[in-house]
Amino acid sequence: MAVSTNSSESQAFERQLAEMVEIASADPRQRIVPAQVKEWAGNLQNHQFYNLFALMVAERYAAGALSYRVCDSIMNDLWWAWLEGEAGPKVPEPFYEIFLAFDAGEYHRKRDRSDDPVKDHTDPLIAEILSRQKHPMT
What we know:
Elements: H1 7-25, H2 34-41, H3 46-62, H4 68-84, H5 95-103, H6 117-131
Helix pairs in contact: 1-4, 3-4, 3-5, 3-6, 4-5, 5-6
């Protein structure tokens, strides 16, 4: 990742991700809001925060540490927080790609629902994003 972090920053990011997981795992009506994002971002630029946490979510999902449902919920909340907050003119990448990867798992393509949208779409997209040597933080 392009954002260098020290041990205390890494621990803070892990705590913030744990808060996101708690929100996503609790009441489905509870959301991550722009004020929380602003607080969590601290000294990070807006795009750095979204990219960093999207990559953390994707990495935990790929490792099997977080479920699809929790990751999809976090990414949806972050997307809405980005739209409602200080979004700016350009959507951060790879944040947007990761959001779209989880979004792709939300619906079936076959009428009989015999397909597995997470396995067929989300999993390969996340693997491809994480396989890149460098993640742009612009």
